[in-house]
Amino acid sequence: MSGCGAAKVRQCIEQSGRFSKVEWEAPAIVLDVSPFGESDALAVVLTEAHGRHRGLVRGGSGRRGGAVWQQGNILAVRWLARLADQLGAFTAELAHPTAALALEDPLRLAVLVAACAVAAGALPEREPHPRAFHALMRLIARLPDTEAALTELVRWEVALLAELGYGLDLSRCAVTGAAEGLAFVSPKSGRAVTAKGAEGWEHRLLRLPPFLLNPEAPAQAADWRDGLKLTGHFLARDAFGSHHQPLPAARISLYDRIAALAAANSPTPPHSANPSREP
């Protein structure tokens, strides 16, 4: 953004001190940060009560602020503006350096960045979604175990779809009505299908990884691949597609990484779903 534009935003915020102010304080997860001017930044955070929220961070891209304002970090945030509908400004203290800890493992970092990018793009601004907030907190808590974090990421995306009104129906088969033996999901309706009900249609359906039905089920690369493909399809079509936006590059990159890992572990190539028809 031009220096003139940045100066106007700063001027508006500085002038806010002359009027009544609107402010709040809350724990927050940093979803996105972009440079603004020479040393400031525009940040997007997620809180329990205030949802996805944007604000200006003075010094946010400088040496000290840059270490705090990183994707995935958990902060104690204060937001201040003259009016509720203004951009406002953030100040914060670091509560948990998630980003720095994730740097130890490239795959772990990819999971964190993908989750933050999906949340930043899919959740509506300033609309509370406490379940999505707490689920993302649980995902961050599981990051030290990369395999558990991958499983949690897919579960979080399923929960996010439901939170946004695009929930999958994994309760029973769309064809037979059976609640056991569910193995696929229709790419059109989002309803589960058993292996028996899918006979002859397997190549047109999305595989349903067992860990989405059974919390105790083990998971490996092929399961994470199938899970990410499943949630990615509905995120791209509904959560992002409804706003004419593509799935975030970080999320696509994570899927490609897991698909390559699954291919390296198995000689059997993954099937491709064709959403043109369904049972």
Please, could you describe this protein's structure?
There is one protein chain. The strands form 2 sheets. A 5-stranded mixed barrel has the order 1-2-3-5-4. The chain has a 3-stranded antiparallel beta sheet with strand order 7-6-8, covered by helices on one side. A hairpin with a 3-residue loop joins β1 and β2. The model is unreliable at 270-279 (pLDDT under 50). It folds into 2 domains: 3-99, Beta Barrel (OB fold (Dihydrolipoamide Acetyltransferase, E2P)); 106-265, de novo design (two linked rop proteins). It is built from 8 helices and 8 strands. It is 39% helix and 20% strand. With 279 residues, it is of the alpha+beta class. The protein has helices at residues 3-15, 63-68, 98-102, 106-122, 130-141, 146-163, 221-240, 249-265; strands spanning 22-36, 40-47, 51-57, 74-81, 89-96, 182-185, 192-194, 206-207.
Secondary structure layout:
Layout: H1 3-15, E1 22-36, E2 40-47, E3 51-57, H2 63-68, E4 74-81, E5 89-96, H3 98-102, H4 106-122, H5 130-141, H6 146-163, E6 182-185, E7 192-194, E8 206-207, H7 221-240, H8 249-265
Parallel strand pairs: 3-5
Antiparallel strand pairs: 1-2, 1-4, 2-3, 4-5, 6-7, 6-8
What key phrases describe this protein's structure?
single chain; 279 residues; OB fold (Dihydrolipoamide Acetyltransferase, E2P); de novo design (two linked rop proteins); 2 domains; five-stranded mixed beta barrel; three-stranded antiparallel β-sheet; disordered C terminus
Short précis:
With 279 residues, the protein is α+β, with helices and mostly antiparallel strands. The protein contains 8 helices and 8 strands; from the N terminus they run H-E-E-E-H-E-E-H-H-H-H-E-E-E-H-H.
